Amino acid sequence: MEVSSVILTTGSSVVFFRLVNAGVRKLPMPESACRNAWKWRNIATSFVHSFITAIWAVLCFFLHPQMAEDLIETHSVFSHALVSFSIGYFIYDFCDMVFNQKLSQSWELLFHHLVVITCFGLSVLSCHYVGFAVVALLVEINSVFLHLRQMLRMASIAKGTLYRVNSMINLGTYVVFRINTLAWMTRWLVLNRDKVPLLAYTLGSVGMAIMTAMNIVLFYRLLRSDFLKSSTRETKKEKEM
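Request: output the structure for the sequence above.
Response:
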């Protein structure tokens, strides 16, 4: 795929998500979310990206199963376009946070986005490790429920069956599509050390280490917020009875 095609796909993606954000602005917003309208629009836009990417990533392996056997060189135009499309989203979201949120509140995500943009950018420009990047995008399956959780909390629906079911699915998909996927990717990188150039290996190793640390911290926060705290409250109620 030519550089011009990568730029066109990535640029179109940036514009697409800008339009999605503008469209969300025109939709009704929960009264409780009006206190931070920017965050609501940002999360809703991220939800759209996750939903599209989750389906797209699964289709990449379903339509081109050979890619699973060779994550370095084998890929389709369809999978290459997915990675370029996601670069566009991360560029858009990076700029959205820079212009609308304090650095002290967003530095972790900004750093995450820089790492992803760099790794994915090298992949699409060199046409190598596209399959590896698509595997990384399988985490977006979990992101669908992660973003939905944030939206439910902002809409003051942090209690009830819907939130509880989403929390359980969110935690389950987090383990399968984030923690397990990152562990598998790290293992693949180590086993294929001889096939990967030093620069790519170093960049991949550092990226995996950063993502793993961030995901472990986030997993603990989710577990504490949605399960440990609720269990503590139930225990206190039982003691009071």
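The longest helix spans residues 198-240.
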